[in-house]
Amino acid sequence: MSAHQMVCHVADAMRMALGTKAASPAGGMLHRTVLKWVVLWVPLRWPRGILTRPELDQLAGGTRPADFAADLAQVEMLLSQVASDRSSRRPPHPLFGHLSERAWLRWAYLHTDHHLRQFGR
User: Fold this and answer.
1) What is the pTM of this model?
2) DSSP assigned state of 45
3) Three-state SS sequence of 66-119
């Protein structure tokens, strides 16, 4: 994943969190219970190579990179919108199912941090 693809992927993930981009469901009861708790609340870095839903994959159905500055501005706006949106009507996460507002915010932080670390340490 290139830096530009990562920017578009994170933007698509935030669109998913806001309910403006659909992502097909995956996983089962284990994902919606134990794995959800571990991923969101155990202080471990997420491993590299985790597959994403095709709708969020820039090589499949995700938003294709276009103009880097415009895509970067878009992801910044979407991250701000997710952080400030106090809606209790967010869609279910494709893997973890229903998330509380706190869990959605935690996921948004961890997901973004995971991808930013791809280009750092």
Assistant:
1) 0.91
2) P
3) CCHHHHHHHHHHHHHHHHHCCCCCCCCECCCECCCHHHHHHHHHHHHHHHHHHH
β-partners of residue 97 are 93
| Beta carbons within 8 Å of 90's beta carbon, 6+ residues apart | 17, 18, 19, 99, 101, 104
Is residue 121 very low, low, confident or very high in pLDDT (cuts 50, 70, 90)? low
Of 112, 88, 111, 72, the residue nearest 18 (C-alpha): 88
Task: Give the span between the Cα atoms of 72 and 21, in whole angstroms.
Answer: 18
Write the pLDDT tens digit of every residue in 31-86: 889 999 999 999 999 998 888 998 989 889 999 999 999 999 999 999 999 999 87
Q: Position of tokens 């500055």?
A: 69
Close Cβ partners of 111 (under 8 Å, ≥ 6 residues apart) = 10, 13
